[in-house]
């Protein structure tokens, strides 16, 4: 079976006063609220700027994140409940690099601060088929939006299977790249 993928990421460049205002609103409204919560309550969903969350949702939906990181998303034509989005998958991607699995981004983002996510997003180069070069091309606003949207979903699911080096046979289904 031959599969070809074209992944594109819209790169909006609007920053400045709107982002500063959103950041100020977030700091003024969320930080005092979070400080008054118990540690268990703080791990639950924290409200963030609605426009930033909607932008993050839009990017996750249109940039192809769900195609790999949400089980069954592509096969269902995108008709997968949002509560399942970005929970990783056991469908492997196999090629000359070995076999990789889509990370559970909801767990991944909950292990990062915004600053550590921005640094990771600017420097990481994971194995194929992850289009890291598209992530590198995103604006800080885009990356922050994806971060806050993903965190707003809350942690869910379990970690994806571990990477398998070349020559090791995966236990489950895989998409095989030529090479």
From TrEMBL:
<feature type="region of interest" description="Disordered">
    <location>
        <begin position="159"/>
        <end position="179"/>
    </location>
</feature>
<keyword id="KW-0408">Iron</keyword>
<dbReference type="Pfam" id="PF00034">
    <property type="entry name" value="Cytochrom_C"/>
</dbReference>
<keyword id="KW-0349">Heme</keyword>
<feature type="signal peptide">
    <location>
        <begin position="1"/>
        <end position="34"/>
    </location>
</feature>
<keyword id="KW-0479">Metal-binding</keyword>
<feature type="domain" description="Cytochrome c">
    <location>
        <begin position="54"/>
        <end position="153"/>
    </location>
</feature>
<keyword id="KW-0732">Signal</keyword>
<dbReference type="InterPro" id="IPR036909">
    <property type="entry name" value="Cyt_c-like_dom_sf"/>
</dbReference>
<dbReference type="InterPro" id="IPR009056">
    <property type="entry name" value="Cyt_c-like_dom"/>
</dbReference>
<protein>
    <submittedName>
        <fullName>C-type cytochrome</fullName>
    </submittedName>
</protein>
């Amino acid at each position: 079976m031959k599969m070809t993928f074209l992944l594109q990421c819209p790169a909006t460049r609007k920053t400045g006063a709107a982002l500063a205002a959103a950041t100020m609103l977030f700091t003024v409204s969320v930080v005092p609220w979070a400080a008054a919560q118990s540690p268990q309550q703080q791990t639950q969903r924290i409200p963030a700027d609605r426009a930033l969350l909607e932008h993050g949702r839009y990017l996750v939906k249109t940039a192809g994140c769900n195609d790999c990181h949400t089980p069954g998303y592509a096969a269902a034509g995108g008709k997968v409940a949002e509560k399942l989005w970005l929970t990783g998958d056991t469908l492997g991607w196999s090629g000359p690099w070995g076999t990789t699995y889509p990370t559970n981004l909801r767990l991944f983002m909950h292990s990062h601060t915004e600053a550590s996510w921005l640094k990771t997003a600017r420097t990481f180069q994971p194995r194929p088929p992850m289009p890291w070069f598209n992530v590198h091309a995103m604006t800080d606003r885009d990356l922050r939006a994806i971060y806050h949207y993903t965190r707003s979903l809350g942690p869910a699911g379990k970690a994806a299977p571990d990477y398998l080096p070349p020559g090791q046979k995966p236990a489950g289904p895989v998409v095989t790249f030529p090479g």
